[in-house]
Amino acid sequence: MNESSQKKSQLLKAGERLDILKKENIQIIQSPSVFSFSLDAVLLANFASVPSSRKTKIVDFCSGNGAVAFLLTGKTTNPIIGVEIQDRLIDMAKRTVQLNELEDRVSFIQADINEITSEIQPDSVDIITCNPPYFKNIPSSTKNTYSEFTIARHEIKLNLNQLMKKTGQLLKMNGKAYFVHRPDRLLEILDTMRANRLAPKKIQFIYPKAGKEANMILIEAIKDGKEDGLHILPPFYVHDETGEYTKEVKAILFGE
Q: Can you give the pTM of this predicted structure?
């Protein structure tokens, strides 16, 4: 076993696998039974506008196993801080940092976002990205009790208002935030943003394929931005008529 293979075997735990972020040339640790990132994380990282080299403080909320943070390394030389509350996920993310020797590029804080101002100074962050829990924590929700997957998907630890409140607190004036979410909560998202000094500036609807309803939205907001100037971007299609990824998705995933 060569040194690289030995390092991989030492860093992987039972039930985990290595996947490749091809464009970024990063091997990311995943666990199908606990948490694996999906296309929404990839589209969020692509949507976020981050300076390639100008000094910028970037924070990724609800980091999970770190997918968005690792994807952003392909767009900027600035260090990225991921914030995740769950033990198992933060452990996977930190081992991915070790595996890829990214200690000077990506770091992770295990913290409740509701308490994040004890870890990160208010009014100090230039850019926040977030792939948050999509579903309200209501009794009718179909969910397993507090599994890692459930906490990542449902607003058990963090609801929409709490997320926008902490985003507004951490961002500098004119700092930007980027979110991926579900279209059926769009009005609530926009209202909650505006209540927390976040002015929506760009919205893009993501469609599984032409002729289908949108199943994701990407939103850019600016702290203390003007109320006017909202742009609705062209629709983005994930699959073509044959069921294959569109050329736009292939470009994001593989650099094709």
A: 0.91
* Band of pLDDT at residue 219, cut at 50, 70 and 90: very high
Q: Mind listing the pLDDT tens digit for each residue in 45-68?
A: 999 999 999 999 999 999 999 999
CA distance 43 to 254: 13
* SS3 state of residue 164: helix
Report CA-CA distances (Å) from 33 to 149, 150, 157: 8, 12, 20
DSSP readout, 54-92? S---EEEES-TTSHHHHHHTTT-SS-EEEEE--HHHHHH
What CA–CA distances, in Å, run from 149 to 64, 66, 153? 10, 15, 6
pLDDT of residue 4: 61
Q: How many helices (H) and strands (E) does the chain have?
A: 8, 11
- Straight-line distance from the first to the last Cα atom of the chain, in angstroms, rounded to the nearest whole number: 33
CA dist 134 and 44 (Å) reads 14
- Which residues are within 8 A (CB) of 225 and not within 5 positions of it... i.e. 6 or more apart? 174, 198, 199, 201
